[in-house]
Amino acid sequence: MIVARRFPNRRDAVKGARTFALETLAAYPSGVLEVVELLVSELASNSVRHTNSGFEVRISSDASRIRVSVTDNGGGEPRVQELGPSAISGRGLALVQELSDSWGVSPSRSLNGGKTVWLELHLADPRHRHGLAARRPASEAHPAELRVAGRHGQPNRSARARRSRPNSCGGCHGPARSRSARS
Fold first, then answer.
1. Domain count, the chain
2. Does residue 174 sit within a domain?
3. Residue range 74-86: average pLDDT?
4. Any idea what the CATH number is for the domain that residue 29 is in?
5. Smallest Cα–Cα separation from 56: which of 104, 119, 13?
């Protein structure tokens, strides 16, 4: 299955992108949906925050994997930032790197330029069946993860909603990064 939907460059489009992903993948286990919801939110938020264009969310899936990509007309090449524990934003791609099996950035095929940030979840990986709560005991979590996880390992939406969203890029664009599947 391959489906795609375009969204405008507005903050409320992030919720629409999450809803689109959850409805598209509704047949998958709740643990998988929990991870997809968080990662789609992060990619869509980056597109809204760092570009002046709308974006497209494309989802392809089969019995072995889910691939999500977000394409926009913005310039630059997103990269994982190295942040201190007191930073209040900038962890989106670090979450994508940690929770996906592979991810990367590709130039868009559009005549307008831009880029596609994609990620894959390999469904044979047992981590994806149990969602965010089963990733690691809270006592072993990195401080950045504690800010993202709320009660029962669910994403802490209220904390994310309170984060400021400045219009400037803040230095998130740099060389493309890709990570192969974990062994």
1. 1
2. no
3. 85
4. 3.30.565.10
5. 13
Q: What is the pLDDT of residues 107-127, one digit of tens each?
A: 887 767 899 999 999 998 777
Mean model confidence pLDDT for the chain: 78
- Is the residue at 55 inside a domain? yes
Domain extent, residue 122, equals 2-162
What is the rounded average pLDDT of the residues 1-6?
97
The string over 71-96, giving b where at least 16 C-beta atoms fall within 10 Å of a residue's C-beta and e elsewhere, is bbbbebebebbeeeeeeebebbbbbb
**Half-sphere exposure at residue 33, Cβ-oriented, CA atoms within 13 angstroms:** 13
Q: Which of 40-44, 111-115, 141-145 is predicted with the least confidence, judged by mean pLDDT?
A: 141-145
Q: Find where tokens 């989106």 sit.
A: 92
Q: Could you tell me where the beta strands, DSSP code E, fall in the chain?
A: 2-7, 55-61, 65-72, 102-107, 115-122
Q: Give the C-alpha separation, 25 to 23, whole Å.
A: 6
> Residue 100 is encoded by which pair of tokens?
């996906």
Residue 180 DSSP code: P
Tell me whether residue 181 is in a domain. no
Domain-embedded: residue 137: yes
| Rounded-to-integer distance, Cα 34 and Cα 37, Å | 5
| pTM summary value | 0.71
Kindly state the percentage of the chain with pLDDT values over 70. 70
